[in-house]
Amino acid sequence: MRNPVIDVVGLRCRYGSFEAVRGVDFEVAEGELFALLGTNGAGKTTTMETLEGLRPADAGRVRVLGADPWRERAALRPRTGIMLQESGFPADLTAGEVVTLWTATSGRRATEDVLERLDLAHRRDVRVKQLSGGERRRLDLALAVLGRPELLFLDEPTTGLDPESRQRTWEVVRGLLREGTTIVLTTHYLEEAESLAHRLAILHEGVVAVSGTLVDVLAGQPARISFDLPEPLGVDALPMLLGDVVHEPSGRVEVRTRELQEDLAVLLAWAGAADVRLGRVRAHHASLEDVFHAARSRSFRVGVAA
Ligand SMILES: Nc1ncnc2c1ncn2[C@@H]1O[C@H](COP(=O)(O)OP(=O)(O)OP(=O)(O)O)[C@@H](O)[C@H]1O
């Protein structure tokens, strides 16, 4: 990758004697959205805080926009935007006053009406404590994008939002990507990463278990065909398939296969010829959820696709 916006090599972070991040490598290219995913306690926040210059690395090399985020934080600050998990605005200020205050103290110029952009202009005079949870998160995002940063960190930007508010946030994020902003996102919503990320890494117990483009990581997992087999048939009645056949205790049959189309065609042709009615047939390629579960069990690894 030429001139990555973020370059992390061998990052290690500890809390006392506990090593939370244990040798993490990844790169983020200009203009892409990179999702940092992982189980609870995997080290996402610790890694983000290091990238944001909020804590030093204990070992390894971290470069953000070509600079050391810890030592050169003041220089990087005007070029980056940070949306933390928890904001903590003074509850009695209005949304408009929070933006004014932030503009004055952050050294950022209000290059546009961010409240308008985040669909909060009509709530300008409403106190923070009276905003809904979704509106408060949008105010967080408004402050993070003030001054049009080149690089934006989004730490769980849609946690606790209803589906409609989440979609609205995704639209704003897509708009920022169209304008060329580079974004690092952490989220527990896998569909959020699936919908927005160009590349991703899944952390597990402080190491990168899986990383690459969405297409790469999905390709590393088999597709699934599942169905109910009518009594008294057992799996030994099925035709020869290329994938592995598992008869679940629930009675449902699952085929894990890298040849989805071939196995599905053979199965349906057999059912048609034998006059067998398969119940609730589902066939789908691997999802990020499948990759996530595999990463947890560390059953496979995919290298970073540069
Ligand atoms: N201040 C601290 N002191 C001691 N241990 C800490 C501290 N902060 C985090 N840890 C530990 O470091 C590990 C990584 O924490 P981190 O918050 O980076 O994980 P995470 O992936 O962001 O988790 P989550 O998804 O739950 O937010 C966890 O085991 C956590 O308990």
From TrEMBL:
Domain ABC transporter intervals: 6-230
Assigned keywords, A-Z: Antibiotic resistance, ATP-binding, Nucleotide-binding, Transport
Origin superkingdom: Bacteria
Localization: Cell membrane
GO molecular function, one term: ATP binding
UniProt cross-references to InterPro entries, sorted A to Z: AAA+_ATPase, ABC_transporter-like_ATP-bd, ABC_transporter-like_CS, ABC_transporter_ATP-binding, P-loop_NTPase
Keyword match ATP-binding: yes
Keyword check for Transport: yes
Pfam families linked to this entry: ABC_tran
Membrane topology field: Peripheral membrane protein
Name of this protein: ABC transporter ATP-binding protein
Organism of this sequence: Saccharothrix lopnurensis
